[in-house]
Amino acid sequence: MTKEVAQCQCGQLQIVCANNYLMHGQCSCEDCQRRTGTPTSFHLYYKAKDVEIKGEFKTFTRKAEEGREIEFIFCPECGGSLAFDIPWADDVYGEKMTGIPLGNFTNPKIAAPDVSVWNCYLPTWFPNVVTETRRMAEQPKTIDDIKLVLRSLGKL
Ligand SMILES: [Zn+2]
Ligand SMILES: [Zn+2]
Q1: Taking all residues of the chain, what is their mean pLDDT, rounded to a whole number?
Q2: What percent of the chain has pLDDT over 90?
Q3: pLDDT interval class at 83 (50, 70, 90)
Q4: Domain ranges of the chain
Q5: Which of 14, 47, 99, 137 is the most buried (most CB within 10 A)?
Q6: How far is the CA of 125 from the centre of ligand 2 (A)?
Q7: Tell me: the pLDDT tens digits for 117-150?
Q8: Ligand nearest to the CA of 65
Q9: What letter does residue 62 receive in the DSSP assignment?
């Protein structure tokens, strides 16, 4: 298959993905809203071993659910948000995973999201892009809850 390449606005920071993504998620949490400057955002989840980061980057780490931490990488030149570590990946899949904001691929052929979380923060006028069963007001918090949702989506 052809390799998907994600990049920031100025183009000095790139991520080359050697394999298909495992999941496509929509997130409307307050942190993603502030990071992206828009009320909702879409992210492709890859196995970390399948992505190669090229270029200079800086990191920002914040607290996530259940005391976990989440680390973001961004371009120090243009500020673009390029990728983040999925904080529950080790506990669920036994390996690291990397989330990459969909817009960095600028590929209109990528399929619609598998799941949508934190819809409680989405503006009421915003259209739904996934069906009711794939839409959650918040996000699953414990590892067991996450596994349950992933199994229901056929992703575990
Ligand atoms: Zn840049
Ligand atoms: Zn979020």
Answers
A1: 95
A2: 94
A3: very high
A4: 4-152
A5: 99
A6: 19
A7: 999 999 999 999 999 999 999 999 899 999 999 9
A8: 2
A9: E
Backbone angles phi, psi at 141, to 5 degrees: -95, -50
Torsion of CA 96, 116, 107, 34, to 10 degrees: -80
Flag whether pLDDT at 2 surpasses 90: no
Protein residues with C-beta less than 5 angstroms from the ion ligand 2: 27, 29, 32
Whole-prediction pTM value? 0.95
CB-based neighbours (< 5 A) of ligand 1, an ion: 8, 10, 75, 77-78, 80
Question: What gap in Å lies between CA 33 and CA 126, rounded to an integer?
Answer: 14
Distance CA(67)–CA(64), nearest Å, equals: 6
Cα 13 to middle of ligand 2, angstroms: 22
Ligand 2: centre distance to CA 39 (Å): 10
What band does 66 get if pLDDT is binned at 50, 70 and 90?
A: confident
In CATH terms, is domain 4-152 a member of 2.170.150.70? yes
CA of 128 to the centre of ligand 1 (A): 31
Q: Ligand 2 centre and the CA of 77: distance in Å? A: 23
